[in-house]
């Protein structure tokens, strides 16, 4: 996706910070007013800068929309892949890493509620292609999970009746849900993570340690 022809006119940390501020302001305006009901003037007014500043980084409202979506996907992906799930030593470590990923997604929603709300709910209604991109982010995670579980079957830690593709898809879907739930209520990370991990354990027939 395009990030604007003028993105290279300024350099250094301040330039990157200003661009981030514009993306954040755009996300807030898009959520508050609706993408179709606002323009560049609303975005720059929210940040208190001039039109020229905006056009130093982006060519249009659609251009900054792409940047908002890219930023949201980048933050979500970072929370998913940061803890190398597929390198877990055993199933216990695998589930612990998964729990930490749920926690990190919850924390991201607390830190960037407008951005995540827009990326998950609003953007796909503007461009249906973004639905596939969003699902693809979580689908990549599911592929990693399924591959690790396949190793578990080969080692004899899991029985061969487990449908690994379905389990991987379910794990990705649960992560997506963990990014959505905090937007609609006061659930804490602990409220979300423990039941989700227990659900996954029971679904693939793994007993928690000490059970």
Automatic annotation (TrEMBL):
DNA-binding region as annotated in the record: 39-58
Domain HTH tetR-type: 16-76
Keywords noted in UniProt: DNA-binding
Pfam family, one: TetR_N
Protein name: TetR/AcrR family transcriptional regulator
Source species: Rhodococcus daqingensis
């Amino acid at each position: 996706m395009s990030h604007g022809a003028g993105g290279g006119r300024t350099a250094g940390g301040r330039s990157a910070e200003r661009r981030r501020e514009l993306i954040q302001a755009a996300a807030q305006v898009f959520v508050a007013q609706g993408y179709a009901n606002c323009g560049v003037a609303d975005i720059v007014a929210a940040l208190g800068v001039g039109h020229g500043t905006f056009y130093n980084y982006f060519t249009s409202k659609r251009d900054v929309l792409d940047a908002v979506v890219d930023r949201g996907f980048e933050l979500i992906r970072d929370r998913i892949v940061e803890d190398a799930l597929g390198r877990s030593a055993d199933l216990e470590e695998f589930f612990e890493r998964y729990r930490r990923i749920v926690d990190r997604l919850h924390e991201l929603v607390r830190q960037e509620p407008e951005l995540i709300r827009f990326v998950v709910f609003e953007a796909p209604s503007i461009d249906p292609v973004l639905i596939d991109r969003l699902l693809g982010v979580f689908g990549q995670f599911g592929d990693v999970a399924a591959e690790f579980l396949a190793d578990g079957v080969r080692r004899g830690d899991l029985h061969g009746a487990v449908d690994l593709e379905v389990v991987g898809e379910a794990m990705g879907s649960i992560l997506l849900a963990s990014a959505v739930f905090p937007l609609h209520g006061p659930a804490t990370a602990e409220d979300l993570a423990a039941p989700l991990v227990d659900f996954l354990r029971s679904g693939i027939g793994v007993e928690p340690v000490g059970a």
